[in-house]
Amino acid sequence: MKSRILVVDDETSMCQMLEADLRLRDFEVLWNISATAAEKTFPTGGFDVVLTDLRMPELDGVAFCRRLVALRPDVPVIVMTAFGSLETAMQAMRAGAYDFVTKPIDLDALELALRRAVKHRELQEQISVLSRAVAEHPRIESLQGECSAMLRLSRMIARVAETQAAVLITGESGSGKEVVARAIHDHSPRAGRPFVAVNCAAIPDTLMESELFGHEKGAFTDARSQRRGLFQQADGGTLFLDEIGELALALQPKLLRVLETGRFRPVGSEEEIAVDVRLVAATNRDLLTAIEEGRFRDDLYYRVNVIQLEVPPLRVRGSDILLLAKHFLSTFASRGGKPVTGITKPAAEKLLAYSWPGNVRELRNVMERAVALTDCDQLIVDDLPDKIRDFQSERLVLDGQDPDELVSLAEMERRYLLHVVRCVGANKAMAARILGLDRTTLYRKLKEYGEPPADKPSKSGDD
User: Fold this and answer.
1) Confidence bin at 395 (pLDDT 50/70/90)
2) Which residues contact 402 (CB under 8 A, 6 or more apart)?
3) 247: phi > 0 → left, psi -120 to 50 → alpha, else beta; which?
4) For 117-131, 364-378, 395-409, which range has the lowest pLDDT when averaged over its residues?
5) Average pLDDT over residues 67-75
6) Residue 397 lies in a domain
7) Which of 228, 140, 229, 220 is nearest to 185 (CA)?
8) Domain extent at residue 114
9) What is the number of domains present in the chain?
């Protein structure tokens, strides 16, 4: 791509001459005869270098240079000054200018100065990208975990955070989807702007439109004052829609429109509002099944699912269970002023053996309870809830020799079917394909085993 140069000089003839020559040297050139006008053009012009005269009416080159550097320190500014005005040129350098050239302009020397400035900008941009990559690699600090699945997720977050693409985070309830959403925001260029989160399952359908888009005073019975919606509150930042699969069908086209146009109309208003919001959504439901059943729009699905990140369930994360347990233990011991420093081996074995259906949220709850109740300096088995102390693994032992470990064919089918459903995050369509069953048969068997046969709306939040 051609390097884009902004030329600023109060003499039209000088601007035209520079434009004609620099275009022949394979630069793209835009010029202004007013620094004030150029200052308005600069932020959105995508310029690689600014070439400006020093002596201009309204706003002199030194002040202009200082403003440009404040706006975009990554864009080099080269100043043009008459021979004999080197002191003024030095003032511009102290104001942040990258280089200066003297008039009358030596066009070959100017080309060299411009190409050096362009190269300088490219190098600074590469350094910035590499610095961010080093800071974020190999894992995101807010994501506690060392297993391969979590390291892959951390690397994906680091790559995704730099983009503006919509992200759909999938995973079981309690697995840490909001932590992932916050990590995306915190490592993105929007980190200094708002992160606004809402659980779509926790707000009644009748209030959700007003919650998202705001309303005018008097728009409905209880609208006693004007209210800014979540999209306005997140302007410039990130909006996290948790459990997006629970969003009412009537609201889905309105959400789709604002995602596509960046504009929406508050309830009761005739004026549209423009916002710049990055969407991150999450679900523990099978949205493709919801599309087949007419509960979710396919066009909205493809709009929110530009990039999909899957958060692994805690039961497949191996030793991460103990890493997280120790992290929570330290947090709650410090908060409660208790001298609890570790976990005994038998208690650790119980934690590793448990299946953690509630994922990280459940583990956090268990550790908070255990720290609060223990009388020891290390957690023991008796500090754990009965469901963990008495848990019997449902692993299948196909090659075992101990008759006590062998189970009936019906019990083996039950365990394997439930194991598959858990492994696919309760995605019934995928589970049915793996098991070689139609979904009607799968739902019937789940009902027989006391499991919910179909997805039910969840009213709880996700961490």
Assistant:
1) low
2) none
3) beta
4) 395-409
5) 86
6) no
7) 140
8) 3-131
9) 4
